[in-house]
What does this fold into?
Amino acid sequence: MGAEGHADGTVGKALDVLDMVAGHDRPVRFSDLLAQAAYPKATLYRLLQTLTSQGMLVLDPDQGTYALGVRLVRLAHAAWAQSSLAPIARPYLDELAERTGETIHLAQMDLGQVLYVDKRNAARPVEMFAQAGKVGPAYCTGVGKAMLAFMQPEALDQALARQSFLRHTDQTLDTPQKLRAELQAIRARGHAFDREEHEQGIICCAVPILTRSGRVIGALSVTSTTARTTLEALEGAAGQTKDIAAKIAAEAESWRFPEQT
Amino acid sequence: MGAEGHADGTVGKALDVLDMVAGHDRPVRFSDLLAQAAYPKATLYRLLQTLTSQGMLVLDPDQGTYALGVRLVRLAHAAWAQSSLAPIARPYLDELAERTGETIHLAQMDLGQVLYVDKRNAARPVEMFAQAGKVGPAYCTGVGKAMLAFMQPEALDQALARQSFLRHTDQTLDTPQKLRAELQAIRARGHAFDREEHEQGIICCAVPILTRSGRVIGALSVTSTTARTTLEALEGAAGQTKDIAAKIAAEAESWRFPEQT
DNA sequence: CCGGTTGGTTCCATTATTTGAAACTTAGTC
DNA sequence: GACTAAGTTTCAAATAATGGAACCAACCGG
It folds into this structure.
């Protein structure tokens, strides 16, 4: 992992460091970060100091390790409630999960990556934050392609530039060209398929969540396995998935309005 | 709210802006932020731009409003799992809730404020993220005082400087002097009480969660109402609460170790 | 007890970034 | 069509970030 890169300005670098700390799943020592980071010792040191004094990181003085700070948890609460579609979409996901009996994913685009913000698993009820927060590639997942297909040209270019195009399975679309062709088909069709492009045996049918003005704000997918069903069967649910997506979009838009100053 | 202030460097300012956006619970327009912020137009503008291009904020181009970005949600996921005591403490909270039959809070200190990271309510099982993320004052809550009492002098000074000392009820300790005296008693006793200092009728008994080296990493409280029980009765649970706190601390410490580079 | 490492912190002159008043664009309004 | 509000851009001055190198403190192995 690592290899961030796109850091404009000091803020960008600081956030980059933040991501780096977040990347490890345990508290990290200064030297670990130094080894991984592209910044010189003193710079990294001051960055860490700033972030720590800001409460974004916590320095464990006993061991000299850095971990993500509680301020992030607080921000997260707000982010969850405000930015993500999850709170709005929750009841609709429940509905869709019940109607299809399959696994449902709600995702949003995060700088070229797919961020799963909520999930329903036919069987066990969600454990919200454990499931959400996962990130995945855009170019080889149903939700990712559904979102890419409806992005603005410049945003799409940016996003494509961030794809690795690693070949996960035989079906993976492993070049921008193949992907662009597929995206066109998706735009025409209105929904995307995952033909075991990410994981062998896993298929899905995904639809974008679009505002009235046509902006993508997320995607919804119905996922299953080749053992259980077929793409054609999943496509049968595309209609109702689109309906649900439309409802979520509508609510998301009305939610953003009121603003009585 | 608002009135942040302590912003060293550009990064501090950027994070300040982030908090500002998080403070509103709906997407905010540029001008709203401008009115609230201490920064000149152009500066705020560029800060917002940076944060947006970094994915920490999202600009809704239809309406020109800013909202917290998904990158934050991703970071939050990591922060939750890594920094907060919540995942470690979960089973212990369950245990304590069951044994006491009262409401349990798990909190951590966030720059002088108390951040509730998890909660058990005898009746309904937790809805994790909805409950957590709430912040409260430190000077007039059980968990707050329990943590303050065991902080290092300098950290304590910093934290006290951030308290408002607003008088919420007749019992509220409304000066640093009164609070310092109380903190000494808490240190001696090993646990803190909330004698209806924050909300009328709400009482609690709280204990700090300390590392072996004596650093505070959080606090645990058993909360109830004057209608249901008394402080004395709650104090009866102090022993087992301390045991639980010790277990959480131990696990938190061992968790932070391994680090085979 | 000492010279050598490793891991972390601080200095400080140089450099690059941020700053913010003011000018400029839009897009509404009357 | 002038007037206003909201957002965006410019540019020289000011400030903050930079990073090489020096420094400090533990911790070795001898």
About this structure: The beta strands of chain A are 28-29, 57-60, 65-68, 103-110, 113-120, 135-137, 192-195, 202-210, 216-225. Chain A touches chain B through 69 residues (CB under 8 Å). Residues 9-10, 29-31, 34, 41-42, 45, 64 of chain A lie near DNA strand C (CB under 10 Å from a C1'). The longest strand of chain A covers residues 216-225.
